[in-house]
Amino acid sequence: MYKSVFLAVLSTAFAANIDIQVGASGLVYTPSKVTAKAGDTLTFHYATPFHSVTQSSFDAPCHHLDGGFNSGIVQVPAKSPTFVVTVKDSNPIWVYCSQVSHCQSGMAMVVNEPSGKTLEMYQSAAQNAAQETADPTVSGGVLGGAGGSSGSSSSSSVSSAVESSSMASVSSSSASVASSMSSTPAESTSASTPVSSMTSSSMTTDAGAAGTPSSSTTAESSTSTPPPTPTGAASHERGDLLALMGAAAFALLL
């Protein structure tokens, strides 16, 4: 069991893709012979309108094989569509175009051509094959581009939605960061206001204390200041008084 799982994972890891042009050079697949292993993919690119990629058997050329893949008739829009088929094993795969007379005209190819059954033998037998009505049902592969599978469209829509959501989320986060940054200065200013007020108040108080003398200091200064020395007329009157007192004292002694 584990061996088969390992081999499946290994084959997927080393899977290759083979590109095939449909109608690029007339009623042909280019290349018309390829070799592929299980897990590889065949990507058919529609170069001109009204072609199909339809699987058949070697023994019944130009007839849709039951359970085989089919792209239906593809009308090429401005953007060229593709039809992708995943190879399941190494068995031969016969492919033809189901548009009227295309298979009978040699529009066929083979994957893993076996010995004894060549593409040329298939094309030779196809010339006499009855025309089969083309089956419009897409099966066994993925039709991409315009008119592609709904799975591809859904996947694209989901991817677009996720991208839009991611962009919206990034825009919202940016707005939140910008809002936080714009509010930070206001908070910082608000927080620093009390400190500034306290500092200013303290400086005012200190300045007031240093530059404005108190009432007690003024009183002390007044008391300790000596009286002014008399000058002019006051000084002359004092001299006369002293002279008079001296004369009176001298008279008493006599």
Automatic annotation (TrEMBL):
Q: Which CDD domains match?
A: Cupredoxin
The name this protein goes by in its record: Cupredoxin
Q: Which SUPFAM superfamilies match?
A: Cupredoxins (SSF49503)
**Where does this protein have compositionally biased stretches of type Polar residues?**
124-136
Show which residues constitute the signal peptide: 1-15
Q: Where is this region: Disordered?
A: 123-159, 178-236
Q: Where is the composition biased (Gly residues)?
A: 141-150
Q: Which keywords does the record carry? A: Signal
Q: Where is the composition biased (Low complexity)?
A: 178-224
KW Signal (keyword) present? yes
| UniProt-listed InterPro entries | Cupredoxin (IPR008972), Ser-rich/MCO-related (IPR052953)
